[in-house]
Specification:
By secondary structure, the protein is of the alpha/beta class. It has helices at 31-40, 63-71, 90-96, 109-125, 145-153, 164-178, and strands spanning 19-24, 46-52, 81-86, 101-106, 130-135. Strand 4 (101-106), helix 4 and strand 5 (130-135) form a beta-alpha-beta unit.
Protein backbone atom coordinates (compact mmCIF):
# COMPACT_ATOMS: atom_id res chain seq x y z
CA UNK A 1 0.00 0.00 0.00
CA UNK A 2 1.16 3.54 -0.76
CA UNK A 3 2.34 4.97 2.63
CA UNK A 4 1.14 8.45 1.54
CA UNK A 5 -2.43 7.29 1.24
CA UNK A 6 -4.84 5.91 3.81
CA UNK A 7 -6.93 4.28 1.13
CA UNK A 8 -6.98 0.54 1.45
CA UNK A 9 -8.79 -1.21 -1.36
CA UNK A 10 -11.34 -3.74 -0.30
CA UNK A 11 -10.56 -7.11 -1.75
CA UNK A 12 -13.22 -9.71 -1.24
CA UNK A 13 -11.83 -12.98 -0.06
CA UNK A 14 -12.20 -15.73 -2.57
CA UNK A 15 -13.78 -18.57 -0.71
CA UNK A 16 -14.55 -21.03 -3.44
CA UNK A 17 -14.26 -21.40 -7.18
CA UNK A 18 -16.82 -19.74 -9.40
CA UNK A 19 -18.60 -21.95 -11.90
CA UNK A 20 -20.74 -21.00 -14.90
CA UNK A 21 -22.84 -23.13 -17.19
CA UNK A 22 -22.78 -22.42 -20.93
CA UNK A 23 -25.76 -24.25 -22.46
CA UNK A 24 -26.75 -24.90 -26.03
CA UNK A 25 -27.57 -27.51 -28.60
CA UNK A 26 -24.13 -27.23 -30.21
CA UNK A 27 -25.21 -28.96 -33.41
CA UNK A 28 -22.33 -28.54 -34.08
CA UNK A 29 -20.07 -26.33 -31.97
CA UNK A 30 -18.68 -23.33 -33.89
CA UNK A 31 -15.82 -20.89 -33.36
CA UNK A 32 -18.44 -18.41 -32.14
CA UNK A 33 -19.33 -20.76 -29.28
CA UNK A 34 -15.64 -21.36 -28.53
CA UNK A 35 -15.06 -17.61 -28.33
CA UNK A 36 -17.79 -17.37 -25.67
CA UNK A 37 -16.33 -20.31 -23.72
CA UNK A 38 -12.83 -18.78 -23.69
CA UNK A 39 -14.15 -15.41 -22.63
CA UNK A 40 -16.28 -17.08 -19.97
CA UNK A 41 -13.07 -18.47 -18.51
CA UNK A 42 -11.80 -14.94 -17.94
CA UNK A 43 -14.80 -14.34 -15.65
CA UNK A 44 -15.26 -17.72 -13.98
CA UNK A 45 -12.90 -20.36 -12.64
CA UNK A 46 -14.68 -23.14 -14.48
CA UNK A 47 -17.15 -23.36 -17.34
CA UNK A 48 -19.45 -26.33 -17.79
CA UNK A 49 -20.51 -26.65 -21.42
CA UNK A 50 -23.98 -28.15 -21.09
CA UNK A 51 -25.22 -29.90 -24.20
CA UNK A 52 -29.01 -30.00 -24.43
CA UNK A 53 -30.74 -32.84 -26.19
CA UNK A 54 -33.24 -30.40 -27.73
CA UNK A 55 -35.56 -32.76 -29.52
CA UNK A 56 -37.50 -29.74 -30.85
CA UNK A 57 -34.55 -28.95 -33.12
CA UNK A 58 -34.02 -32.43 -34.66
CA UNK A 59 -30.24 -32.20 -34.43
CA UNK A 60 -28.04 -33.52 -37.24
CA UNK A 61 -25.57 -35.01 -34.72
CA UNK A 62 -26.63 -37.13 -31.77
CA UNK A 63 -25.72 -36.18 -28.19
CA UNK A 64 -22.63 -38.38 -28.13
CA UNK A 65 -21.31 -36.86 -31.37
CA UNK A 66 -21.99 -33.31 -30.23
CA UNK A 67 -20.27 -33.79 -26.87
CA UNK A 68 -17.27 -35.56 -28.40
CA UNK A 69 -16.80 -32.76 -30.95
CA UNK A 70 -16.79 -30.23 -28.10
CA UNK A 71 -14.34 -32.27 -26.01
CA UNK A 72 -11.99 -32.53 -28.97
CA UNK A 73 -11.70 -28.72 -29.00
CA UNK A 74 -9.75 -28.74 -25.72
CA UNK A 75 -6.63 -30.47 -24.44
CA UNK A 76 -7.40 -33.60 -22.40
CA UNK A 77 -5.79 -32.04 -19.31
CA UNK A 78 -7.92 -28.86 -19.46
CA UNK A 79 -9.53 -28.95 -16.03
CA UNK A 80 -11.35 -25.63 -16.25
CA UNK A 81 -13.77 -26.83 -18.92
CA UNK A 82 -16.21 -29.67 -18.45
CA UNK A 83 -18.57 -30.98 -21.11
CA UNK A 84 -21.79 -32.48 -19.83
CA UNK A 85 -25.28 -33.32 -21.02
CA UNK A 86 -28.27 -31.47 -19.61
CA UNK A 87 -31.81 -32.74 -19.63
CA UNK A 88 -34.73 -31.14 -17.86
CA UNK A 89 -34.68 -27.58 -16.60
CA UNK A 90 -31.43 -25.82 -17.28
CA UNK A 91 -31.58 -23.60 -14.23
CA UNK A 92 -32.12 -26.62 -11.93
CA UNK A 93 -29.07 -28.22 -13.47
CA UNK A 94 -27.02 -25.04 -12.97
CA UNK A 95 -28.09 -24.82 -9.34
CA UNK A 96 -27.30 -28.49 -8.69
CA UNK A 97 -23.85 -28.01 -10.19
CA UNK A 98 -23.17 -25.05 -7.89
CA UNK A 99 -23.02 -22.59 -10.80
CA UNK A 100 -23.30 -18.90 -10.06
CA UNK A 101 -24.33 -18.08 -13.59
CA UNK A 102 -25.60 -19.23 -16.94
CA UNK A 103 -23.64 -17.71 -19.80
CA UNK A 104 -25.46 -16.76 -22.97
CA UNK A 105 -24.02 -15.23 -26.11
CA UNK A 106 -25.88 -12.41 -27.84
CA UNK A 107 -25.35 -11.99 -31.56
CA UNK A 108 -27.88 -9.40 -32.61
CA UNK A 109 -30.98 -7.58 -31.41
CA UNK A 110 -33.01 -10.48 -32.79
CA UNK A 111 -31.55 -12.75 -30.06
CA UNK A 112 -32.63 -10.38 -27.33
CA UNK A 113 -36.37 -11.11 -26.98
CA UNK A 114 -35.93 -14.83 -26.54
CA UNK A 115 -32.92 -14.42 -24.26
CA UNK A 116 -34.74 -11.89 -22.11
CA UNK A 117 -37.69 -14.26 -21.68
CA UNK A 118 -35.42 -17.21 -20.90
CA UNK A 119 -33.36 -15.24 -18.38
CA UNK A 120 -36.42 -13.91 -16.57
CA UNK A 121 -38.08 -17.32 -16.44
CA UNK A 122 -34.89 -18.93 -15.17
CA UNK A 123 -34.56 -16.21 -12.53
CA UNK A 124 -38.13 -16.73 -11.42
CA UNK A 125 -37.45 -20.44 -10.94
CA UNK A 126 -34.08 -20.03 -9.22
CA UNK A 127 -32.92 -16.64 -7.98
CA UNK A 128 -29.47 -17.81 -7.00
CA UNK A 129 -28.40 -18.38 -10.59
CA UNK A 130 -27.76 -15.24 -12.65
CA UNK A 131 -27.69 -15.03 -16.42
CA UNK A 132 -24.62 -13.34 -17.85
CA UNK A 133 -24.69 -12.14 -21.47
CA UNK A 134 -21.54 -11.87 -23.54
CA UNK A 135 -21.55 -10.15 -26.91
CA UNK A 136 -20.56 -12.63 -29.57
CA UNK A 137 -17.24 -11.79 -31.19
CA UNK A 138 -17.71 -9.55 -34.23
CA UNK A 139 -16.20 -12.19 -36.54
CA UNK A 140 -18.95 -14.65 -35.66
CA UNK A 141 -21.93 -12.38 -35.37
CA UNK A 142 -23.64 -13.84 -38.45
CA UNK A 143 -23.06 -17.54 -37.91
CA UNK A 144 -25.27 -20.14 -36.35
CA UNK A 145 -25.07 -23.91 -36.32
CA UNK A 146 -27.86 -24.03 -38.93
CA UNK A 147 -26.11 -21.76 -41.38
CA UNK A 148 -22.90 -23.76 -40.94
CA UNK A 149 -24.79 -27.00 -41.70
CA UNK A 150 -26.41 -25.42 -44.71
CA UNK A 151 -23.09 -24.26 -46.11
CA UNK A 152 -21.55 -27.69 -45.41
CA UNK A 153 -24.41 -29.46 -47.18
CA UNK A 154 -23.51 -27.66 -50.41
CA UNK A 155 -19.74 -27.91 -49.96
CA UNK A 156 -19.17 -24.32 -48.79
CA UNK A 157 -15.83 -23.27 -47.32
CA UNK A 158 -16.09 -23.32 -43.52
CA UNK A 159 -12.47 -22.56 -42.70
CA UNK A 160 -12.16 -20.17 -39.78
CA UNK A 161 -15.79 -20.69 -38.77
CA UNK A 162 -15.60 -24.11 -37.12
CA UNK A 163 -12.68 -26.16 -35.78
CA UNK A 164 -11.07 -28.42 -38.42
CA UNK A 165 -12.36 -31.65 -36.86
CA UNK A 166 -15.93 -30.30 -36.94
CA UNK A 167 -15.48 -29.34 -40.58
CA UNK A 168 -14.35 -32.88 -41.33
CA UNK A 169 -17.30 -34.44 -39.46
CA UNK A 170 -19.73 -32.26 -41.40
CA UNK A 171 -18.10 -33.17 -44.68
CA UNK A 172 -18.34 -36.89 -43.91
CA UNK A 173 -21.93 -36.62 -42.69
CA UNK A 174 -23.11 -34.98 -45.88
CA UNK A 175 -21.08 -37.37 -48.04
CA UNK A 176 -22.82 -40.30 -46.30
CA UNK A 177 -26.16 -38.66 -46.92
CA UNK A 178 -25.42 -38.56 -50.66
CA UNK A 179 -24.49 -42.26 -50.82
N1 LIG B 1 -21.66 -18.24 -32.10
C1 LIG B 1 -22.26 -18.91 -33.07
N2 LIG B 1 -23.54 -19.30 -33.02
C2 LIG B 1 -24.22 -19.01 -31.93
C3 LIG B 1 -23.67 -18.31 -30.87
C4 LIG B 1 -22.33 -17.92 -30.96
N3 LIG B 1 -21.70 -17.25 -30.01
N4 LIG B 1 -24.59 -18.16 -29.91
C5 LIG B 1 -25.69 -18.76 -30.37
N5 LIG B 1 -25.45 -19.27 -31.57
C6 LIG B 1 -26.40 -19.98 -32.43
C7 LIG B 1 -26.46 -21.46 -32.15
O1 LIG B 1 -25.54 -22.16 -32.95
C8 LIG B 1 -27.88 -21.79 -32.50
O2 LIG B 1 -27.98 -22.02 -33.88
P1 LIG B 1 -29.16 -22.92 -34.46
O3 LIG B 1 -30.45 -22.32 -34.02
O4 LIG B 1 -28.92 -22.81 -35.90
O5 LIG B 1 -28.95 -24.30 -33.90
C9 LIG B 1 -28.64 -20.50 -32.19
O6 LIG B 1 -27.68 -19.50 -32.15
C10 LIG B 1 -29.35 -20.56 -30.89
O7 LIG B 1 -28.45 -21.13 -29.99
P2 LIG B 1 -28.57 -21.07 -28.46
O8 LIG B 1 -28.89 -19.69 -28.09
O9 LIG B 1 -27.39 -21.68 -27.83
O10 LIG B 1 -29.86 -21.90 -28.20
P3 LIG B 1 -30.10 -23.39 -28.38
O11 LIG B 1 -31.39 -23.49 -29.09
O12 LIG B 1 -28.97 -24.10 -29.01
O13 LIG B 1 -30.21 -23.87 -26.89
C11 LIG B 1 -31.17 -24.01 -24.69
C12 LIG B 1 -31.26 -23.41 -26.09
C13 LIG B 1 -30.77 -25.46 -24.72
C14 LIG B 1 -30.15 -23.27 -23.89
C15 LIG B 1 -32.57 -23.85 -24.08
O14 LIG B 1 -33.52 -24.42 -24.94
C16 LIG B 1 -32.68 -24.49 -22.73
O15 LIG B 1 -32.28 -23.92 -21.75
N6 LIG B 1 -33.24 -25.73 -22.68
C17 LIG B 1 -33.37 -26.50 -21.45
C18 LIG B 1 -34.82 -26.49 -20.95
C19 LIG B 1 -35.06 -25.22 -20.22
O16 LIG B 1 -34.59 -25.01 -19.13
N7 LIG B 1 -35.83 -24.36 -20.88
C20 LIG B 1 -36.09 -23.04 -20.38
C21 LIG B 1 -37.30 -23.04 -19.54
S1 LIG B 1 -37.44 -21.51 -18.72
Amino acid sequence: MNPMSNYEPFVAEKTSETVAVYPGTFDPITNGHLDIIHRGLTLFDRVIVAVAENSSKKPLFDLEERTSMIRACFPADETRIEVDVVSGLLVDYAYRRGAKAIIRGLRAVSDFDYEFQLALMNRRIEREVETVFLMTGFRWIYISSSIIKDAARYGGDLSGLVPDHVCERLRRRFLQAQE
